[in-house]
């Protein structure tokens, strides 16, 4: 019988350092990408998939040293981040100049799908952000800004129209029938909105300490129909703090628990599992469970469950 609980420990995450087109571009060449649940959006065959379950969304992560950035891109499906470690600047627009916001540990950002976005570690230490991506098939879902493709080619990386990277530094060539991906034209770029901070930050960003303050509304719906961010990206996100899921419950959907602060004891069908900060735990549908803080002090995590909505958020409120 399948164990209903599947744990990926933070300390056991295996990075891919050649996941995307900007892997050789100075300023972006030190980033690490992690594929935790599902296939993710990596363009490299070198990625390690920790759990291949298809549950309606993907879980990934990005780790970067200070001053390292992730180049401008957009997605065809939802992309939600929360900051696990460090201090991060998120910026958006075709040239990264339309708007920006600084996020600290625990803050969550549901980035509007049709907007070009990038992010940078502006802290003093190695930082980590956790990601939720809409849909089971997130492969090929990344669209890069034209200048990112040009910079990558100048440093030996070419993205094929099959969604795979080819490294000329390793003498790799595009196979027969595969051509370099065609950059977006200026006319095509006009379809991607340039949104100011006032159109993004109030509606798509929620701060960790504001969520912690909602102690009488726990678990707190953060993303979903009727949530603080009232969007329908194909999954819903709840914020869970100390003592909010102490009674046994069941779910008719799989759920993912992502540790943020403190330590939690998850009990499923009588078996205990400890959830630490940075751990990702998939719990199958149907199993009875309780979730309680394992020690005294601050404790929080994010819970993600699939919905029947299309795997891409709307734009506009």
UniProtKB/TrEMBL annotation:
Record-linked Pfam families: Cupin_2 (PF07883)
Domain spans labelled Cupin type-2: 69-130
Gene3D superfamilies, per the entry: Jelly Rolls (2.60.120.10)
Protein name, per record: Cupin domain-containing protein
UniProt organism field: Litorivicinus lipolyticus
High-level lineage: Bacteria, Pseudomonadati, Pseudomonadota, Gammaproteobacteria, Oceanospirillales
């Amino acid at each position: 019988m399948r164990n209903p609980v599947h744990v990926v420990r933070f300390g056991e995450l295996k990075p891919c350092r050649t996941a995307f087109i900007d892997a050789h571009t100075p300023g972006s060449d030190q980033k690490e990408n992690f594929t935790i649940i599902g296939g993710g959006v990596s363009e490299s065959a070198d990625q390690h998939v920790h759990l291949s379950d298809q549950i309606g969304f993907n879980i990934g992560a990005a780790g970067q040293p200070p001053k390292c950035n992730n180049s401008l891109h957009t997605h065809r499906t939802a992309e939600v981040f929360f900051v696990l470690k460090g201090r991060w600047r998120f910026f958006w627009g075709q040239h990264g100049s339309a708007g920006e916001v600084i996020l600290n540990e625990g803050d969550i950002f549901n980035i509007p799908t049709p907007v070009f976005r990038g992010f940078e570690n502006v802290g003093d230490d190695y930082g980590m952000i956790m990601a939720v991506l809409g849909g089971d098939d997130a492969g090929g879902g990344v669209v890069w800004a034209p200048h990112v493709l040009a910079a990558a080619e100048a440093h030996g990386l070419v993205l094929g129209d099959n969604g795979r990277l080819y490294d000329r530094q390793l003498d790799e060539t595009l196979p027969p029938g595969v051509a370099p991906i065609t950059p977006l034209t200026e006319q095509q770029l006009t379809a991607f909105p340039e949104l100011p901070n006032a159109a993004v930050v109030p509606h798509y960003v929620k701060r960790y300490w504001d969520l912690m303050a909602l102690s009488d509304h726990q678990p707190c719906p953060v993303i979903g129909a009727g949530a603080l961010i009232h969007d329908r990206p194909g999954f819903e996100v709840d914020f869970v703090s100390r003592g909010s899921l102490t009674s046994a419950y069941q779910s008719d959907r799989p759920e993912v628990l992502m540790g943020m602060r403190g330590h939690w004891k998850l009990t499923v069908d009588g078996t205990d599992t400890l959830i630490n900060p940075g751990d990702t735990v998939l719990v199958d549908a149907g199993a009875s469970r309780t979730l309680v803080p394992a020690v005294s002090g601050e404790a929080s995590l994010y819970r993600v469950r699939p919905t029947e909505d299309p795997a891409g958020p709307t734009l506009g409120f």
